[in-house]
Structure formats: C-alpha cells, structure tokens
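Listing 4. Sequential folding, example run.
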Amino acid sequence: MANKCDGHNAHFDKTKEEAKKLIQSPIISISLAFFLCFFSLYISPSLSIMAQNFPLVPKPLGGASDDPLKRVSLIPRVPEHKVPENVGERRPLAPRTGEEKPFGEEEGHHLAPKPPSHEIEKLSDVVPKSVRPHESEDGLPKQSLIFPKPLGQRLGLGKKAPFQRGGRPMFALSDDRVMLEKVSKTHSPDMLSFDVISLLSIVHDIFKSHVPSLDRSPSKAPLVFKDYADYTSFEAFAELIDQISCEIECKCMHGGESQGLMSSGFHLDSRHTAAFSVLSLISKYRWDAKAVLVLAALAVKYGVFLLLAETYATNQLTKSLAMIKQIPGISSQETSFNKRLEKSRVLMQDMVDLTTTIIKIYELPPHYITEAFTGHVPIAVYWIVRSVLLCTSQISCVSGFRQDQVMSFMEVSEVHENSERLRKINAYLTEQLNKSLDSIKEKKTEDEYQELIRIFTTMIHIDIVLPLLRLFRSIDFLYHGSGHSKRRVGIDALSQKNVLLLISDLENLEREMYILEQLYNDAWQQSFEILWVPIQDHWTESDKTKYETLHSGMKWYVLGEPWMLSAASLRFIKEWWGFKTKPILVALDPKGQVVSTNAFPMIWIWQTFAHPFTNSRERDLWAEQEWNLEFLIDGTDPHSLTQMAEGKFICLYGGEDMQWIRNFTNLWRGISKAADIQLEMVYVGKRNPKNGLQPIIDRIREERISHTLVDIFQIWFFWTRIESMWESKQRVLKQRTTRKEEREDIVLQEITSLLGYGGEGGGWGLVSRASELMVRAKGNVFEIALTEFDQWSGEIPSKGFLRALYDHLMARRPPHHCTRFMLPESSGIIPNSVECTECRRTMDKFYLFQCCLE
C-alpha cells in the first residue's frame, strides 16, 4: 500500500515539473499575455455593467436579517418591473441543501425536470407551503423558468378557453362526459325535498352581510331585518349541514389549502376527492337541494368568521376567541386579507347565481327538464362544491395569517378560474332555461287562447260575468263613475246586463269618446253599459299616467289595471274581434254571447235605434232605410237639415283647390237664379281630414263662398258615417249567398262612389232635396254640365230639376272614367274584389300605407 502511494506522489511531482516547464516556454507566455489583454478590454467592462445592474447588497450578520423569510431574492428583474411594497424583505425561499436542489443541479444550474405525476405527492415533504412565486404589482407572478406555468395555461382553461367543444359547452377539467358519469354515480335521490328558496335566501343574506372592519367599500345602508318565522323550519337539516361543514373543514385541513408550489398539483386532486366525498353525503337530495345545502355549510363557516370580525373590538369574548384562533389581523382594514375576502365574495355570489338558476330549472314541469339540463346540472353542482371547498380554504387561512402576507398566484388564478367557470355554466343554463320558459309561455298562451275561442263561440253561459272573468283573468275589479264619485267595483256589477266593450288604445279615442258622451244618458244606461278596455302591447309609466287621466273623466265602467291583461286575451281581441288601432265596440248580451264584434257603425248610423246591435237588427234597419240626402247628413249638420226642411236644394261638395271651389260655387249661383230654385251649398271637405283643411274652411268663410261644416271634427264624423254605412252594408251582404244581390245594391254603389270622391281630394259635388233623387259627379264633369245649362234647362219643366241634370250627366259621361277607392279600416270586412261604380269593371287591388298626408 505504501509503495502505491509513493508511486503516485512521484508521478505527481513529475507532472508538476513538466507543467512549470510548459508555462515558462515562450509560446505559452505569449498566449497568456494575449488572453490578459483580451480580458481587460472586453470581459472586464461587461462584468462591471452586470455588477451595476444587479448589485449584491451585503446584509449584516445576526439580527433580523438571519431570518430566512427576510432574504432578498437574487433572481434578476427587468428594470421597468417594480416590486410591490408588500413584497421583498419577507419573501420566503426554499431551503437549499446539498441533497434537495429544488431549483436545479449544483453543477451547470440546469433546471430540475418535472417530477412524474406519481411522485407529486412526495413534494410535500420537500417544498414548504410558504413558498411563493415572485409577484408583480397586480399580485400576479412574473414569468420565470423556475416556476410552473399558470394554472389556466396548464389546464387549458381561463378567459381564452373555448366555450364550445363540438357543439357542447366545455366545463370540466377533462372530458365533460366522463365527469358527468362520475358525478351522476353519486346521485341516488329518494324524493326528499324542502324549501330550497327560503334556505338560499338566508344563505345569500349571510354572504352579502356588511362588516365595517372588513369591508373597505363605502358603508352601505343597513339590511332590513327579516323575520324568518314564516320560513320553513330547517331543523331536520341542521345536523346534515353540520356534517357537511365538518367534512369540508376536515378535507381543507388535510391538504385542501391552495398555497405554495404544492397548489400546482396536490391540492387539485385533493379538492377533487373532497368534492366527491361531500356529494356522497347528500346523494339522496335533488341537485338544487345539494347546491343549497353545501352553500349553507359554507354560510355557517363564513357567518361565524364575520361575527368574530364584527365584534372583535367591542366584545372581550370575541377578542379572546380571535387570539386563540390567531386572527388579530382582522381588526385592520389595510390587511391583505381584505383582498382575499373580496375575491371570495365574488365567487360566493357566482355560486348563489348559479344555484338560483338550478332552482328555477327544477321548478319547470318535469317533461321540460330535458337533456339540455340533466347533462350539465350535475357538473354545475360539482363545481359549486369545489368552489365551496376553495372558499372554505380561504377562510381557514385566517388562523395565523400575517398582515403582509399576500395571496399566491395559484390562489388568485384558481379563484378567478372557478368564477369564470361558474359564470359560463350559468350563462349556458340560463339560455336553456329562457328557451324552456318561452316554450311554456307560448304553450300556456295557446291554451288560454283556444279556451277563449270556445268560451265566446261555442259555450253557452247563464251570465255575462264568467266570460268576462276568463277574458280579463288576473284583473278582478272595475272603476265606475267620474270625478270624486268614481269607485272600485267587482266585475259582477255587470251581471245580467247588455255590455258594450269599448276597446281602444290610448291615442285614438277622443272623437269616439265625445260622441259616446253625447249619447250616453239615462236611457242608454237602462239598456246597456259601456266598459272601456284599453289595449297596449307595452305599458310604460307615462302610459299608466295617461290611463289614469283618461278614465278619471269617464262616466261608464273602466277596466282596472289593464296592463295585467294576458297575452292570450290580447291575441283574441286582435284576431277574433279585429282590433288594430281604430276603436271598436264589441256588444255582448246578458249571457255573454257576442252579438256584434263592432257596434260602432250601427251607432254612428242610427244612434240608439241600433240597440240591441244584433245582425238581425242591422238587416231590419237597412230594409227600412231609404237612400236620400236626409239620411246621408243626419246628425252631422243641423243647419242643412233646417234648410232642407224649408224646401231648399242642398249641394254638398268637396275639394282642396280654392280656384275650383270659387268657380264651382259661382256656377251654382248662376244656375239657381236661372232655374229659379233655392240652393244651399255646404262644404264637407274630404276623408281623413288633416290640418290642411282648416285654412280652406277659413277662406270659404272669410269670402262667404258657402256654408261649411262646423269644424274638422264634424267633417270627420260626416265621412265616418259614410264609412260606417259601407262597413255595415258589407256585413249584411256577407250573409247572402249570391253576388248578384251585391251588384244590384244601389245604396252600396252610391256609398262606394262617395268614398272614392272623398278619398281622392279632387273636386266633386252632390245635389238633392229632402227625399228626392241624389245627383253626384266628379268636379270636372259637374262643371261641364253646369256650363251647358242651356242644353238641358228645357227638360226641367217636364222632368224636374234633378232628373234633367241627372240625364244630362249620364248622356255626357265620358266613355271610360273611373274612380280611385280606398277602403276604410274595418273589422276584417275586406271583400275579395270591388267593382268600379262607373265602368263596372273589377278594380285592381293595392295596399296603401298612409301617415300624416294632407
């Protein structure tokens, strides 16, 4: 052994001598000199710059600096990245030993390879939970090769994660179908149920409780104290909630905390296992009940903590408990725990929102809870449980919590991603829920609509009250009287009465109201009652105010709260009774049978004589009625009726051309003198009068050209009566079977011609006396006939003035002259075809949309 050592020493001495000779050689000396020059010129300045950028501040030995939590990190930072104030001195570093090497190998400083999944659990023995990555100003870590990727990047989640995968929402960590199967295996309900809405309401009250010592936001108004005496008793579930709370607490205390590098692997698997353990405890409840029970367990934990925080400064018992639990920092508003609490509260609200949606889903009829819900609600409940575990971990971390300790990146990332996940699930389920609710609403509306059709068309009733109750549904009262005498009454006040339903909107009622008020007297009230039913698709506050103003001046009955009318009732009124925008008057007999879908035409034509507004009454009135001037102007112009009673001829005319009006009236003055007749001319304007007619009326009066109807309203009523005649005639003729009767109806032809004259706006005229022949023509035709008075004046003694004028007009009528005819708005009475009253050809059909045209 000694010989071997001596041999090694001799060999070493020999090698040393050879090295000295090599260094002393000229070539080696030149090489060393060249290297020293290169080092002084290039490498030495670079090292100086690095020393300036990354100075190593020496720390004195001993004292506080020996604390490993106060070592300064030597990891270089980019200059523009500032270090937060609460990060730096107390940054914990993993202990370095020759065996552990957590950051890399000793030689070469290579990064340590990522341990396999089966070895992750061993890291808990190596890396302490206090290890945290470097953080930036916003609390998030700076990217560094020595730290793992963010949770969202490693799991493929986060804001940029796709919401859909193959047409299905993607919520689970792995395949959502696999997760659904696993979660569904924990579900074995036995039809147990309780008042989940009330319990969730209590939980929500706890979550949103305001504690000044913890909430940095401006002080809020104190919550109104709620009396839970009426809520369902939860005594049967108190023990279960305690069990859930203990299970959650136990799992969180044994690996569920999300702190340090261990959060990157260990706590996820642990929380996953804990979630299934909690789901097993509540396997026999419905999914909505599971979510509420788990939230209740979290609320108990959270509520106890809030009570400690709220009474910490004023209650000795609370202070003592807080000292034992090592939570003195809750008394300071500046602790970083406030940030932890704010993020947890956001997650709590997301859980409450999602749970509320799940509760609404299970309020649906069973056959509406389709796969769109059952395929995602279990996943939603699973993530609610996971989020409860996360929040519980955050609250449990208060024990021993330091004021300068901040949330790790893994904690921030997990809370954020859980919130995003819950919101995405809630958005999807809410969308599906709204679709189901719309479908249910449509089905309900259709059923109610078909029921109304049966009630008012096929069913026989003994009183009008029942049909009205079904039509108005949720509205059960009326207003009656005007002014201070108005009072609320029940719908049964209309029992065994004839009722006219005045259906209108809030804009087009003034003229109808004016005429009805003139007709509504004691005689009317003894025969029938009027009930106003205002119709609006969408009611605003201004609409409700206008409704109050309108009905305050009405003498008759008014429907209370008309904005509560169901969609089925609105549809029935529009489709079966033909309401659009023009008011209609639906007549009901004492048994609730519809005798007329619009009694306005009969009332405008015959006033009270139209009662009881039945179809048979309408036929009888037309059978008795003669077509003459007295019938045409009845109720519209008392002056003309007086002149007619004195035996004068009355010439009605219209038009908008003042020059033509002057020429036409001057011709008639000459004719009346030449024919020795007494003539009164009356200007009646045109259909749908606008403001443009008022200047013409004023000019006629100023120049004393002729008599005119009193005002625009009187002109409107004159033409409305003619439109009502056309509508009433069409309704009567509709009951006949042959078209020949319609073509031979002289009255309908005359009404149609007048509507054509009034709709065009051009000049026209009509002359007659009392019950004699009425002669009408367009302005230019009439003008020519008057200028040719000498040609037909000789026929006057034998034929009479009107017959002689009529024969001359017929003989001089152009071979083809037609008129334009615009149909009035009516209750669905639009014939398939209309013949021209002049040439008897079928008129072409057009659609006219008109607004504010003069």
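-- end of first protein; second protein begins --
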Amino acid sequence: MIIKKLFFLLFFISANTFAQETLIWKRYIGEISNPEIPKLFDYSYAGYKLGEVGIPKAQKHLKVFNVMDFGAIPNDTISDQQAIQKAIHAAEKNKGGVVFFPKGEFLINVQPKKVNPITVRSSNIILKGSGWGKNGTVIHMKDHMLKRYPDEPEWKVSYMFEFYSNTKKTAITHITSNAKAGTFKIEVKNISAFKNAEYIQLEMPFNLNAVSESLAEKKPRPHWEKVNNEGVTFIENHEIKSITGNTIILKDPLINTINTDYNWQAKPFFPLENVGVEDIFFKANFKDKFVHHKNFIHDNAWSVIAMQSIANSWVRRCRFSNITGAVSIRNGYAFSILMLLIEGNGGHKLTNVAESTRVLTGLINDATNNGQFHGASMSHKTSGSVIWRVKTPKQGWDSHADIPKNNLVDMYEAAKMTAHGGYHKNEPHHLKGLTLWNYKRVGDTVSDYNFWSLSGKGMYWGFSAVNPIVVGLHGTTTTFNKTNVGYIEGLGRKVLPESLYEAQLKYRLGIRPKWMRKNLKEWHKIEKEWLKNE
C-alpha cells in the first residue's frame, strides 16, 4: 500500500513537472508587466449568478406539480404531452413551481398533426426528473417536429421544449457618456424606462466606422456582406445593481468600451428568471446517418430544449440520445449548461449559445457514434461566455459566425481545431478576445492552421477569428500561421493554471467557490458510472 501511494505521488509530481504556470497568467495577476504579453479578458463572470454561487440543490420554496396528477402515466403507449403541458400551466398560474417527473418513461410528440412544442412562459418553473440513469425519468420524443409553414427554413424548426419570455416592448434610450470595458457604470438619457427593470440590454447598432478597429486592421473577405455593407454590432445583457439619477450601476463589468459617437443605446430587458431543466433522460429517434443541411429533419426536427430571453437559469444533469440538437440558448444572461451526456446516433448540434452574455457551457461528453456535427458553440454576438471541460472526441467546438466577442474555450477535448459553421455572409466567426486554453486535440496532425485565410474554395475559406490567444494547446501535433495569432504560449504541452475559467473565478472571489468543487466531483462520478455501464 505504501509503495502504491508513493508511485501515485511520484506520478503526480512528474506529470506536473511538465506543466508550468504561464507568463500570460502572471501578467493577468500582476506578477509581471511585460507589455508584449496581452492582458487576458476576465471570463470569470460566466454562468448562473455570474459564477458566484451554485445552482440551488432544491427549490423548497416552490410548490411541486407532479405530472401524474395531471394525467401522465409512465410506461404505457399513450401520449403524456397534454398532461405535461397542463402541469406547467398550473405551475405558471401559481407563479412558479417544480414540474416533477417520477421514475418511468413518458411519451411526447406522438404522431403530431401540427407544430406542438411544450412551452414555458413564466419565471420560477423547474422541469425536474428522477435522474437520467437506470430507474430514472425518460422523456421519449416519439416523432420529429413539423414545420410551422411549408417553406420554413430548416434551421428554424421548433425545438420540443421551448422556454421564452414575452418581453415587453419598451422605449430605447441613448447612453450619454463614454465608458471603458471592465467598468460597471453607464449614464443614460432617459432613466424612467428602467423604473421596474432588473436587467438591461446595451447595444451598439451596426456601424461601419467600428469595423477597422474590430478587425484589428485585418482585411475582410469580399463575400462578408454584413461586415462590409453594414459594419459591426455589439449586444450585451446585464443585471442592474442600483440606479442613482441617470447613472446605472451594473452587477458585472462592461464587455465593450462604449463610445457615444457610435450611437450606443440601452433598453430594459425582461427575461425569464430561475427556470431550469434537470435530472432527465431525453430520448429521441433520429436514426439516419446525418447529412448537413439535407432537410429540416436532419437540421433541427429532433432537437430538444430551446430557451430565449433567459437569465440566472440552467440546464443540468441531463442525458440525450438520438437527437439533432440538445440545448439552444438565445438572448440569455448568466446561464449555466452543465453535466450533459449525448449518446446514440450523431446529429447536427451539441449546444448553441447565441446573442447571449455570460453563459457557461461545461462538463459535457459527446459520446455519439459520429459526434454531433457542430460541437459546443458560441455565436451571433455572444460575449463574455465560456465553454469549459467539454469532450467532443470526434468533432470540434463551434463558433457559428455573426461576430461573437471575448469568449473562452477552456480545457476542450476535440478531434478538430473547430467544427465551425455559419452563413458566409455573416462571417467572421469571432472578433477580438477569443482564447483557447489547454485545448487537447485528439485527431489528425494539423500544420500551419490559419485563423485569417484570405483565399479558398467556394464561399467558405475556413475559420476566421481576430488574433486569438492560444495557450497550452496539446495532444495531436498542431502548428499555426503565426501572423494571424495574437499570442501563443505552451504549444504542445499542458500548462498551469489548468483551467483559466476556474483560476480567474478563484482570483476574483478570493476563494474557489464550493459549487465548482462539488460539480467537478459529481461529474467525475457520473462519467465513471456511465462508462462502467456501457
């Protein structure tokens, strides 16, 4: 036993001998001040409640609405969809509730004759199962979703579960003073618009004058119509901490520098809050070999959870089988997608985060046969968000164009550098502030990878990102065209800190939050148990 313990101690010391604390991290924490080393963006605000506390273990203050009390019967051949929707409506009428699924299999979307997603339109609604494993809760999507109208684009077909806020239409006011990125204060012209608001959305409308700086003087590709003809736009959501006069103090720092010459605007944001999905196995029946953009069935019709206009909410501890898409978040803020297992036949998408701020996507294993075609994704003006400890060993992560900014891919394991997508007219895929940290490649060797190629076949010339930071990329040999990389350190080896998101969060809070340690321990146990049962 003593020899065994000594062996593991020596192995631990040996393994960490090769991992060195990076210069860019030392620059971030102020140990060195070399101006040639860029200052990292602070990604630590990503996730539920800005990463400061964990998702509640239970919602004891909310009434429980058991779907069986509304007519759902597990393990039979009759659809339970109407009963599930009735339970949700009852919880909404109660101004909140836990919609509970006992053990067993519940059927939904059985021979649908029209588009009929299960909807949640109120805050404080939690869909909670009895676990994703053996003797847990299975929600079985028997048939695929239908189009809402005959010529509906493939990618717009409804997901099975749709959470969305009926956002109030409100007047837009202008921001009246310049403000630096990283600060917490803005001045607005009309403060009365925020009288009853807890959240705020800031937007710089499309602006051609901001293009050159946003692209770091790089030349755009000729077919990038949106950037070339309209310019760039930025959107960021925040929670309001306090209001004094015409000054609004935010709970998290500005992501962009606000230049009033660019017509920055502000409006109240009314998202759903404290909604979640947890402890459920979602089983679907997409069995075809996936073909990208073949039709609406391959693109979206077997997709499960979509949430729009959401804040301080989550999807966690869920399992998905034979799907085209797992989770999609649009116009979200301070959201966490954690502990997902995807298995069965590979489809179109893993997770997608669009037009969102401070979203954490982490602790995910894509164990499908061919991998989801697009891995964990951040796109469409998403900013300040993190992809953390995700495994897509047959594919790669995705930045789906339309100029996201200041996002982190942290401890990702993938076969490819990216499995990117997005309409070519909406490229580039990412603006400034993209960091790849301890990215592990397990696929083929890649040489001279170019983040800003200006030639290629057709309209897709490869992934395009403005001067990304690459630190600790290891595994399969990978080299880069250094002209189009902002900074490289530790190429070919794992570095310290192991996780940038974890290190930044600990540095900001002064202590590693308990939720992080508990989630990592729980996820390790879940993965181990799942592998044992395979």
